[in-house]
Structure formats: C-alpha cells, structure tokens
Amino acid sequence: MVNPRAYLAEAIATYGLVFFGPLSVILAISSFGETLTTQSVLFISLAHGGAIALMVYAFGHVSGAHINPAVTIPMMITKKIGIVDGVGYIISQLIGAIAAAATLKVILPELGAKVNFGTQGGPSDLINNSISSGFAIEAILTFFLVLVIFMTAVHKKASPGLHGLSIGGMVFLIHLVAVPLTGASVNPARTFGPALISGFWEFHWMYWAAPILGGIIAALIMNYVYVNKAEKEA
C-alpha cells in the first residue's frame, strides 16, 4: 500500500492540470477568437505541457504523478501499483478534475460555458467528424505518452531528472497536433471533470476507451520488452 498522502498528491496534481488546461482553452477563445488559430493552439499546448511537467516534478516523488487514469490503469496491469491503490489514484484524479472544473465555473461562468469549460468536443471537421479516426488518434497519442512515461520515469536506466521535461514535452506535442483534431484529451480525468460540470457528454466514451487502450498497449510493450530487462540487470 502506498502512503495515503499519495492520493492527495494525485488529486492536487490533477486539479492543477484541469485548472490550467481548460483555463487556457477559455482564455484562448476569449483572446484569439472562437476559430482555432496558431496562437491559440500554441497557448493551449504550452499550458497543458507546462502544467504536467511542473506537477510531475512537484509530486513525482510522492505518488509517481500519474495524473491520468490512462496511466494508472496500465501501471496496475503491469503491477507497478496495486489494484487497491490504483483505484484510489483514479478516484483521487477524478475528484481533483471535478474540483478544478467547478472552480472554473465559479470564476468564469459565462466565458467557460462557451467552451463547456474545456471539454473536448469530439472528432473535428478536419477528420470528417469520424469517430474511428478520432478514436485512433486518441489511442495512438496516449500510446506515445505512456511510452515516454515508462521509458523516462519507470525505466531503471533512464537519465535522472529529465522525466518531467520529457513527459511535459510529449503532452505539449500531443496538444500541438491534436487540439484541432479531437481536442487532445489522452486523459479521461481531464475530460470527465469539465464534462460533469458543463453537462456536455457527447463522444465522452471515446475519451475513456481510446486513451486506456493506447496506454495499456504501450505499457505492455515497454514493460516486457524494456523495463523488466533493465530491472533484472539492476
């Protein structure tokens, strides 16, 4: 069993992501217009990547800073965390996400409502509103996110001190390319909190199923091909 303080760490870290991330969406629309522009995509990407990087550095040594059910579930499957603790992590993440979205509703009720408090809106016109394309994008992007996590934060031979920058950088890259395509979730908690507060549930299942599937595939490959080998050699 992990220290119960790790649950609080997951809640606070996820609060940080779901506060700064959706807030950047709200401010981008307010500053750059409702149509996505290069400036707004960069603004949103930097906010999400920066929030994740800083939360990883702040809480990585406490809880591992999963901040994402699509990270915790693969960690459970590969036995990096126990089932009970994994469930505790996910509940904590969802509580943090809900609290953050509720805070945004209190602070910016009208501006936030215009974008459903940062809830992803599903597959965009750029991919012909295709659910299968949107699902594939979210799954592939989460695959690479979990790949980076396992190879920088879990792998015994990873360079120390770079995992926050690496993970935050991947989140930045994910948002840079996927905000115009699916809204770039790769995190069920990131979508769930704003969806609950806004009441916008369209395509919600996709933002759970696709990231979890992509994360599990990445974790299985990275763990059994690379991580376990390094642990035996250590």
From TrEMBL:
The keyword Metal-binding does not apply. The chain crosses the membrane at residues 7-29, 41-60, 81-107, 127-150, 162-185, 205-227. Keywords: Membrane, Transmembrane, Transmembrane helix. It is a multi-pass membrane protein. Pfam families: MIP. It comes from the Archaea. One of its GO terms (cellular component) is plasma membrane. It is found in: Membrane. GO terms for molecular function: channel activity. Gene3D superfamilies: Glycerol uptake facilitator protein. Its main location: membrane. Belongs to the MIP/aquaporin (TC 1.A.8) family. This is MIP family channel protein. It comes from Candidatus Nitrosarchaeum limnium BG20. The lineage of its organism: Archaea, Nitrososphaerota, Nitrososphaeria, Nitrosopumilales, Nitrosopumilaceae.
